[in-house]
Amino acid sequence: MSHIQPAAHRKETTQLHNGTVMPWFGLGVFQVEEGEDLVRAIRDAAAFGYRSIDTAAIYANERSVGQGIAAALVENNLNREDLFITSKVWNADLGYEETLAAFETSLNKLGLDYLDLYLIHWPVAGKYKDAWRALETLYNQGRVKAIGVSNFQVHHLEDLLQDAQIVPMVNQVEFHPLLTQKELLSYTRSNQIQLEAWSPLMQGQLLDHPLLQEIAGLHHKSVAQVILRWDLQHGVVTIPKSTKKHRIIENASIFDFQLTAEEMDRIDALNENRRVGPDPDNFDF
Predict the structure, then answer these.
(1) What pLDDT score does 46 carry?
(2) Where is the NADP-dependent oxidoreductase domain positioned along the sequence (predicted)?
């Protein structure tokens, strides 16, 4: 594994269109159960310089995330403002009043006074506009620093923007070398919506890919580090999931090298429009 750089690198940030500052890099906790392993992972990540944690109501782990945050603040002498915490409203709670109530539930479980980013988890037809009005209310009340969406395609965004008072600050989507989302990336850039990658490592399915292994070898890096660096060089925020300390450290050690333009193009060319998660245009939950 490469040497560990100073934690300052992992505090590198992008500015959302409303001026809110968001780290380029964070810890995802999808499919991590409540309990000590999750609390410890957040503590380890914070000690190593992570300042962004991404959870969701449906992950059913917000209480442990909150415990990890509380411990990390004390152990690292941090203020709440030093962390960037994201959660998401689940499909069953989409609707104006329902979304407001779901937000309160998430805040209570996390033990926080506000969120840095709150997202609509999936674009459920006929429901996401009412939910978006609720997010706008929460934003205008100062309960959340930024609001956004997740798994929205271009046409979902176009539909939302017909009625929205506030343009989403973030769209979090499945994004990796086999699903490069070129049209969506271009659209979000032109509308000042920050794209964020979930499953950036394709849930581990890309780690033995020959081209990625070749490029990793040239840089004395792991395949995971190459993919996460590729995200950053495309201007995409990334939140890989891990509970293992050595992986948490490895994943974040991506600020000390650069992929060449040719390497970026070669990785882009791997696209197969292949998903590991549900299709935002065809889901039933």
Answers:
(1) 96
(2) 36-272
Domains of the chain: 8-204+235-246 (3.20.20.100)
The closest alpha carbon to 276, from 172, 156, 178, 209, belongs to 178
Helix (H, G, I), strand (E, B) or coil at 234: coil
DSSP 35: S
- Residue 171 and residue 193 in contact, taking contact as beta carbons nearer than 8 Å: yes
Q: C-alpha dihedral over 31, 23, 99, 131, to 10 degrees? A: -110
CA 183, 189, 195 angle in degrees (round to 5)? 80
Question: Is residue 268 left, alpha or beta, with left meaning phi > 0 and alpha meaning psi from -120 to 50?
Answer: alpha
Exposure string (b/e) for 176-198, b if CB count within 10 Å is 16 or more? bbbbbbeebbebbeeeebbbbbb
Block means of pLDDT (10 residues each) for the chain, 285 residues, are: 44 92 96 95 96 97 98 97 98 98 98 98 98 98 98 98 98 98 98 97 96 98 98 97 95 95 98 97 95
* pLDDT for 280: 98
Between CA 181 and CA 134 the distance in angstroms is 28
The one-character DSSP state at 147 is E
Residue 113, CA atoms < 13 Å, CB-side half-sphere: 5
Predicted confidence at residue 71, as pLDDT, reads: 98
Q: Distance between CA atoms of 185 and 174, rounded to whole angstroms?
A: 12
Give the model's pLDDT for residue 2: 35
**CA–CA separation, 96 and 130 (whole Å):** 5
User: Which tokens belong to 193?
Assistant: 């919506």
pLDDT confidence of residue 4: 39
Find tokens 């380029």 and name the residue. Answer: 24
